[in-house]
Amino acid sequence: MIGLISATAAGAAARDRLAAAWPDRTRVYEGPVGEAVRAAFAECGQLVCFLATGAVVRLLAPLLGDKTADPGVVCVDEGGRFAVSLVGGHGGGANELAREVGELLGAEPVVTTATDAVGLPGLDTLGLSYEGAVAAVSRALLDGAPVGLEAEVAWPLPPLPLVRGGSEGAYTVRLTDRAVEPGEREVLLRPPSLVVGVGASKGAPVAEVLGLIEETLDRAGLSRKSVAELATVDAKAEEPAIVAAAERLGVPLVTYSAEELAGVEVPNPSDAPLAAVGTPSVAEASALVRGGELLVPKRKSVRADGQPAMATCAVVRRPGRGRLAVVGLGPGARDLLTPRATAELRRASVLVGLDQYVDQIRDLLRPGTRVLESGLGAEEERARTAVAEAREGHAVALIGSGDAGVYAMASPALAEASDDIDVVGVPGVTAALAAGAILGAPLGHDHVSISLSDLHTPWEVIERRVRAAAEADIVVTFYNPRSRGRDWQLPKALAILAGHREPATPVGVVRNASRPDETSRVTTLGALDPATVDMMTVVTVGNTATREIAGRMVTPRGYRWQAEQEEAR
Fold first, then answer.
1. What positions does the domain CobE/GbiG C-terminal occupy (predicted)?
2. Distance of alpha carbon 526 from its chain centroid, rounded?
């Protein structure tokens, strides 16, 4: 919950805007400001104070305790110009809250946390459990000192300027699920890599189940902080001891059907669970059902009274799944790059792309991003590289112009990718859409895009598609229309369309849409000179209903509408 405090009418107006926008996230505190701040500090995870920063500092000073537990506090001046992250930038989420508040109120977020100021993700903001010398190692990163990365577990991390491997005495970030203590110059990051499979007899005591899990992890030298979930069979989804063990460990309980578990090959099957719940294995099978390395085979609890064990468990390490984001950069203008694309570029630890596209967005990358760029004609190689990097557990962004799924990198990448990595598609503004917006509204009805490049598609196939579009009276946008080595395809395609459309049919020609040297013109099918077109050009040919109106191409939404308009004239 976010506590909202104000002192004046101007502050209350901004406060109420926030409360109206986030009714389920906020609570307004009325009354004397000091009392309101103290109450909100005790009851809320975050505060937004519409007060001077000096006043808030004085009110908060006696309340502050531990930065890992204190609420995040944001101050907004009464003019609504700035949203200042004052306290709890990372631990309390104030930095992100300042950005959200700024976006909603039109205020400039002010974030002074050192790592955020220089574009480095904080070691305490990675979504992983952490311990050790966070401040010292962060300072070393900020100072440009070499900081080693010891990755004992493959896990996707955001970009950090870390050196693979470490040396004695150096600053180190260690990614591990082992139960070890951090060194003086070391930060331990705990990935949620461990799955504990659990079986229990009906009525098993909580202490027996929880004790077995904790003893098993301790004996194996594994960190409880890296346990991602408990897993069991559906029949035990409401077994009180298993449910309580998951709650006490602070992890979700995941269940699978007996049929699913019976199909998992395990080293220690048993007749007892087969008779009881329909699968020869519960602990091992439920831990292994989604793959991974069996670190601890099935263990049984030991009861002090000598009675048969009522609980079993097994531990599996699941490697972190790599992540491949296929990102469309749009037609070139920075303001046509979507916020989602920008977020993915900043999230990626590895960027793969054509060198000229990399140059467009290099300034958006975080320090430490590894860039793998290549020249024209290496599309399949880039796709294979991106998938291979994701399979190694990295967060990868593969970039393409326009929309990455339209004549771009998504197709070859997804043809290489299997279900062992996560794939995210980020749409972009295509060349056809960018050109269409410049020309007017040429795509107002059914339309099709056709590439005239026969490097990957036989001309016979391309020609058949052009004829189909011509016969169907569909607006056509030609990509890759003409190059030095391919100068006859565009005239041929235009001739096919001319067999079904009048010479006066409007044609839009846009070169370098949205870029500084953009040019555009509207001509006709009969007047277009193919020699004026190159590979940087998009050519849009209207259908029989398309008209030029006030210098713009307009294709009506429907033929009936067009007829009504003409009758009205």
1. 194-315
2. 47
Which long-range contacts link 482-486 to residues 24+ away (Cβ below 8 Å)?
482/452, 482/530, 482/533, 482/534, 482/535, 482/537, 483/453, 483/534, 483/535, 486/452, 486/453, 486/454
Backbone torsions φ then ψ of 177, nearest 5 degrees: -110, 15
CA 52, 58, 60, 61: dihedral to nearest 10 degrees?
150
Alpha-carbon 450 to chain mean position: 31
Between 398 and 378, residue with greater pLDDT: 398
Count H helices and E strands in the chain, helices first.
19, 29
For residues 296-311, one letter each, b for 16 or more C-beta atoms within 10 angstroms of the residue's C-beta and e for the rest, the string is bebbebeeeeeeebbb
Res 69 pLDDT > 90: no
Q: pLDDT tens digits, residue range 292-325?
A: 999 999 999 988 777 888 999 999 999 888 899 9
Gap between the terminal Cα atoms of the chain: 60
Query: 194-317: CATH homologous superfamily?
Result: CobE/GbiG C-terminal domain (3.30.420.180)
Burial group, residue 456, by CB count within 10 angstroms (0-12, 13-18, 19+): exposed
β 46-50/72-76 pair status: parallel
The total of other beta-carbon atoms located within 10 Å of residue 321's CB is 15
Name the architecture of domain 2-112. Answer: 3-Layer(aba) Sandwich (3.40)
The rounded mean pLDDT for the chain is 89
Domain boundaries, the chain: 2-112, 129-190, 194-317, 323-429, 432-559
User: Higher pLDDT residue, 80 or 324?
Assistant: 324
Q: Give burial (CB, 10 Å; 0-12/13-18/19+) of 10.
A: middle
Q: Are 186 and 178 in contact (CB under 8 A)?
A: no
Nearest to 101 by CA among 36, 27, 50, 35: 50
Please report where in the chains the tokens 């010292």 appear, as a residue: 136
Query: Per-residue pLDDT for 401 more than 80?
Result: yes
Q: Are the beta carbons of 87 and 94 closer than 8 angstroms?
A: yes
Cα 150 off chain centre by: 25
Position of tokens 């590289």? 385
Q: In 3-state terms, what secondary structure has residue 22?
A: coil
Whether 41 contacts 60, CB under 8 Å = yes
Q: Environment class of residue 169 by beta-carbon count within 10 Å: exposed (0-12), middle (13-18) or buried (19+)?
A: exposed
Fold of 323-429: Cobalt-precorrin-4 Transmethylase; domain 1 (3.40.1010)
Q: How many CB atoms lie within 10 A of CB 161?
A: 16
Percent of the chain exceeding pLDDT 90 equals 55
Tell me how crowded residue 270 is: count the other CB atoms within 10 A of its CB: 18
Does the pLDDT at position 563 exceed 60? no
Q: What is the DSSP letter of 8?
A: S
According to the 3-state scheme, what is the secondary structure of 140-163? HHHHCCCEEEEECCCCCCCCCCCE
CATH number, domain 432-559? 3.30.950.10
* Model confidence at 559: pLDDT above 60: no
Nearest to 437 by CA among 559, 546, 558, 554: 554
